[in-house]
Amino acid sequence: MNTDLKKREAGEPGIRITGLKKSFGDKKVTDIGELELKAGGTYALMGRSGIGKTTLLRLIAGLEKNDGGDITFITGDGKAPSERKDVRFSFVFQEDRLCEYLSAEENLYLVSDGFSRDAFQVKELLRLLPEDSLKRPVRELSGGQKRRVAVVRAMSVTEADIILMDEPFTGMDEDTKKLTADYIREKKKKRLLIISTHSREEAGLLDAEIIDMESLQK
User: Fold this and answer.
1) What is the mean pLDDT of the chain?
2) Which one of 73, 83, 112, 213 has the lowest number of neighbouring Cβ atoms within 10 Å?
3) Is there a contact between 84 and 4 (Cβ–Cβ < 8 Å)?
4) What is the distance between the alpha carbons of residues 192 and 105, in angstroms, rounded to a whole number?
């Protein structure tokens, strides 16, 4: 039985962090003694700008290399550790990272297996976007609409074990935030979700456990 199948039988992974350190030049950004993010949980990293919220998300995903300490992925039964290469991530970055000259639909097709086009993807977009925006180049969409395309791409197209979102509600009004939060909570299922935000209200929309980055740093 391969590693991936064993992990699925045990459940989706959680994360255990110990002694995690990261600096950029002389500036220490991350220095976390211990943190556990349980499988299936929803967590909101909160704190002032520059405290390391984005850096922590990138370290978890393996997009930055830590200077010390460990990030261990634990299967849902709390027993078997997984290697990062066996964990699939979905990431809503601080920037939307969409192809500006492609439509909302086409941005989803790009991350689909075999660039497939199907009605399901369009249906998912229609839950958060007006129909007349789906075929327009995303450069013509508002900031909040682009953000929603990025959220749908992360939640519905990629088969992720862990979902990371950096300020997912940027550019949205209050009603759209609630609509988007309902969508995220539904599509999350039993996966681990970690967001960064400056807003307790946004964390509350996702029923997220708040992690105070100020108190977490050593």
Assistant:
1) 87
2) 83
3) no
4) 26
15-48 confidence digits (pLDDT tens): 999 999 999 988 888 989 899 999 999 999 999 8
d(CA 90, CA 69): 23
Nearest to 183 by CA among 147, 135, 217, 137: 147
Token pair listed for 20: 């995690």
In total, the chain counts a number of residues equal to: 218
- The whole model's pTM is what? 0.88
Q: What single-letter DSSP state applies at residue 155?
A: I
Q: What is the pLDDT of residues 72-114, one digit of tens each?
A: 998 766 666 677 788 889 999 999 999 999 999 888 888 766 4
Q: What span, in angstroms and rounded, lies between the C-alpha atoms of 26 and 69?
A: 18
Q: What tokens does 47 get? A: 């704190």
Chain position carrying tokens 């249906």: 123
Beta-carbon contacts of 77 under 8 Å, excluding residues fewer than 6 positions away, are: 10, 11
In terms of DSSP H, where are the helices of the chain?
3-10, 53-61, 104-109, 119-126, 143-152, 174-188, 200-205, 213-216
Token pair 């953000």 is found at 147
